[in-house]
Amino acid sequence: MVNPLGEETTLETSSLRLEGIKYDVSELESIAIILRDEETLRGLYRLTFADSFLYAGQSKNVVTRFAQHRRRWDDIVAFEFFPLPVGDLSAAEKLLIGVTERTNSLRNIKDTRRPLGTDEIQISVEEHLSIALPWERSKRVRPQQGINSASTLKFAELSNYDIYPLLRQVVGWYLYNAVPDVINTQRHLWTITCLPSTNKTANSFRLLSLNVGNLETLVAVANKEENGAFSYTLFINGERTEDIFEEEDLHLQWVYSYEKYNLTPVTRLVVTLPAIVDAIYHVKPIPQLEEMLEAAYRLNVKLMRSGNTMFKRFHSELLASDSIAAALTWQGEDWHALET
Fold this sequence. Notes:
This protein is α+β, with helices and mostly antiparallel strands.
């Protein structure tokens, strides 16, 4: 019977599957920055050199180990990391060396040309973008050029809209006044999605969708008008309550209505972006807005008390962080409508 990986330092280990990421490190002295989000630095690694030779190894701290290699070799161009938080590193390393030397030349001397026995190793490597740190300022990578994920790309697109600063302040106002413990509950009990594809048409698309629990509670929408220009509206959902009655602005700047989701009925405010900005900064009031804020808070607490959210995988960390930063600008007394 084959012993499970970790019980003995032998080649008679169970099948091993390695999943890792390959980084371009040709201009890096340290790999600490590229591994900053890793839960462990223990595992296996491979180096690729400019002459196409490879080196396979193990370490309890690959950041420290890479620094040692870099001092010895200045021609390292790529680094692959395969996290292995538990298990026998030595046995796994021998397997990695064995499978690597089948197709590549190695700089390793120890443990090469050894039989692999009956054990199998599966390797899955994700290519990663390089990090360049040139001495010439003109050659630096600008923020928009260093984007390496779809989520970040969407945030860069949204933040480049002329109306984003206004939208950001409205979302911050909403978070500060209508979502409890907004910092500690983000991603777990509330999420925010950047440029979602929900209900997208040729003339309308969502800029963002803020979800509490499993329900959308604040959504910003861009609408293309007949003249080609865009207008921007938001809708805010609150607890269904008779304290707020259905009404509509004569100039079509806002409207209150009763709507129903499968999850719960809601009271909804649909409002143009300029109108909500004027209202929260006390330029021009919107009737029942303070009552709507109360209804939004009660709905959010109800949704958060019901547990988790199914929208985690759509959550934009950058947009959430920026929205929380905007919420912090509202520190002070809770928002209240001006008395009329």
